[in-house]
Structure formats: structure tokens, C-alpha cells
# Entry
Amino acid sequence: MRKIIVAIDGYSSCGKSTIARQLARYAGYRYVDTGAMYRAVALFMLEDERCQGADGIERLVELLPDIHIDFAVQADGSQHTTLNGRDVEQQIRHLEVGNKASIVSSVKAVRQYLVKMQQEMGREKGIVMDGRDIGTVVFPKAELKLFLTADSQVRATRRYNELLAKGEKPVMEDVLNDLQTRDWRDTHREESPLVQAADAIVVDNSHLSEEEQLQKVIELFEQRCK
Ligand code: DC
# Structure
């Protein structure tokens, strides 16, 4: 079977990483979470004192060549994001980092830097990548493009439960507001806004179980590999 590129785009908390990871495991492909890369840049900006002034974004852009992001495979097969060799998987998942990621991801130079890295990762194909611009900008010729969506209330409830499970004390109203703000920023930014590629297949998982969704996606994947 030929190796292909699978591009998965969609809104925040739609379960993109879950299905991307499951499909990558099924196919024996590499999985790349591009949201984690934007989050790692955001963490760098939050931590580096040179980026704390009013000109923080300009400093960040100058410092981009010093930002090295990778994924370290763990003994259980899961992946941890690394920033300049440091495992930052836990830190990048905090709400504050997510909010900053939404800001840095609207900066053209940041996007260009990460898109180049992502294209390099997919050079040999055999990759499942998820994000917001994978099927439109990173791999416009991907053999399989999925656009995931779900009702915003359903997504907020999932996100709320995830935060609870992590021991945080989320407030439902804040989680929903945060999600809607991010959706707005993702779809309205000037640089590579979140849009559905014309040839993407929409998967609305509001009322699909994980198993049902996986079966549907595996079918599409098998068709494209032929
Ligand atoms: O999917 P996520 O919540 O981990 O993404 C973090 C932020 O990065 C979010 O605001 C969207 C943005 N992002 C992006 O602009 N392009 C991508 N390919 C992936 C994420």
C-alpha cells in the first residue's frame, strides 16, 4: 500500500488529536500535533525575559532560530513535546499557554517558521498531522483531508471534563467563553485562518462515539491508500 499524508483540521477541543493518534497507530504512521508546536513557542515567549516588554512579539520573532521543537516517544508509545531539549508536555497544556498560543499563532513569521518544520516532517509521507491549516497551507496536496467539527457546547463539556481530570478547577462558563474566543481568533486572523479545504471531508463528531468515528476514518484512509 502506498504511504499517504493525512491532514486533520478543525476547531479547538474537537478531538482532533485523539483521532489523529488513533489513526497513526492503526496505520503505523508518525503523528504530529502542530498545536503543541504553537504552544511550545507560546511557552518560550512566556518564559523568556527578553519577550516580556511591549515589543515582546518582535523579540520572539528575532529569537525564532533559537527555538527547537521536537517530539520524544515515550516507552508507552505516547509522545512528549520538547522545547530546546526539555520535556514541556505538561506545561504547554495549561490554559494560559493555550491563550498565548492563540496569539502567537497569528504572527506571520511564527507560522512560516513552524510550517517549514512541519513540511520537512512530512517529506517522506506516512504521517498524520493535525492543526488548523494542514490541509490548506502545510500540505495542500494531502491525499486525505479531514475537517473535524462538533457543537461548541459539546466541545466545552469535553474540555471541562479534561481539565477536571487533570486536577484543575474549571468554571464551565469560562471554558465555553475561552473556546468561543479561540474559535473566533482561529477563524478571523489574517494569517492562515481556520477554513475548510474545498476537498476536505467533514466529520461532525457531536453524536459519534470514538469507535464510530475511528471506523469511519479508517474506511476513508483505506480508500485513499489504494
Ligand atoms: O490545537 P491547540 O489548541 O493545541 O492549538 C493551540 C493554538 O495554536 C490554537 O489557538 C490554534 C493554533 N494553531 C494554529 O494556528 N495552527 C495550527 N496548525 C495548530 C494550532
About this structure: The radius of gyration is 17 Å. The mean pLDDT is 95. The chain has nine helices and eight strands. The chain has one domain: 5-225.
